[in-house]
Amino acid sequence: MMLASLVAALIAALCYGIASVMQAISVRAASRRTAEVAGGGGEGVDPGLLVRLVRQGLFLVSIAIDLVGFLAQLVALRRLPIFAVQAIIAANLAVTAVFAAWLMKMRLEFREWLAVAGVVVGVALLALSTGAQGAKHVGSEFELGLILAVVAVGLCGFAVARLPNPVRTPALGAIAGLGYAVLAVSARILPGFSPLQLLKSPATYTLAAAGIVSFLIYATALEGGSVTIATAGVVLAETLPPAVVGVLFLGDATRHGLAAVGAVGFGLAVLCALALARFGEAGEDHQATAKAEAGNLSPSVGHRAALKRRQLPDQG
User: Fold this and answer.
1) Closest CA to 81 of 162, 136, 10
2) Is residue 160 a contact partner of residue 220, using CB atoms and an 8 Å limit?
3) For 50, which of 14, 124, 128, 172 is 20 to 30 Å away at the CA?
4) Pick the residue with more confidence: 105 or 78?
């Protein structure tokens, strides 16, 4: 069962990585903000963005892929500690990088291939060191804390969205990541998957609310600034806080004597994923190039920037 859970976590990372490229393309196609306005920030969260997104076939396909990834994540969280599952899911950036390189002919530099290899090694170390998860049963105070956390994420996201850049983008990314962290913890404490169990559990509702709010906040971050910065914020906030919660409150642990191996694997997977954060921008490159090739966009600054990113090593 442990092996099946590890495979499920890897499937989740694969699905999330592929879907993220498709969603980055969709968000920019659905955005009604000009590059100048979006880059300056301060426009707040646009709830209509979700309405426009669901009219796009590419976005709907990405949601279907995300759903498969989420179901796999649920399976993984039934048997594995949160720190292992979240670190493996952070590896979706390695999937995104390889997928973007194949789909959009983007060139990966040597250091980026090293980062992909580092993610793989980190995940392997986590798989080697991961022990059984702790107890799922929590008190009403813990469940109330998750509800308050979702509310706080929503309020902070809507407030921060009105700030100007450069503060806005990393802050929105981190807040969205905290929302995804609440989602992971909520999924972990679900009592079961029967309809009655799901209806009676507060974790079901915090999970759904956290997913919707976090996606909207992250989409807002994608509209208004560097996706590299936003993605880095998400990765850090969705991995570190739930890992701490799992260890302190849910009894998560590594196998006996392998705590150091687990710590190295976790750190390596997350740090190397951060090194690949720029591949959240794959959608922007693809959209600019596709429009230019279709004749809908003259060779603009945005198009030249997209081509330059393909030809030159990343300097960030």
Assistant:
1) 136
2) no
3) 14
4) 78
* pLDDT at site 148: 97
- From the list 14, 52, 54, 31, the residue with the least C-alpha distance to 283 is 31
Rounded to whole angstroms, the Cα distance separating 6 from 126 reads: 10
What's the mean pLDDT when you consider all of the chain? 80
Strand partners, 254: 130
For the whole model, what pTM was predicted? 0.78
What are the CA-CA distances from residue 152 to residues 160, 185, 210 (Å)? 12, 16, 10
The answer to whether residue 316 sits within a structural domain is no
Q: How far from 216 is each of 40, 47, 51, 74, 153, CA to CA, in Å?
A: 19, 7, 11, 21, 11
Q: Considering the domain boundaries, does residue 34 fall inside one?
A: yes
Residue 298 lies in a domain: yes
Distances (CA, A) of 23 to 30, 64, 236, 315: 10, 11, 20, 25
- Span 96-118, average pLDDT: 82
Domain that holds residue 163: 2-311
Q: Is residue 116 part of a domain?
A: yes
Among 57-66, 205-214, 248-257, top mean pLDDT goes to 205-214
d(CA 104, CA 21): 10
pLDDT band, residue 96 (cuts 50/70/90)? confident
What integer pLDDT is reported at residue 40 of this predicted model? 54
Least Cα distance to 91 among 273, 238, 263, 271 occurs for 273
The structural domain count of the chain equals: 1
Q: Encoding tokens for residue 21? A: 């490229």
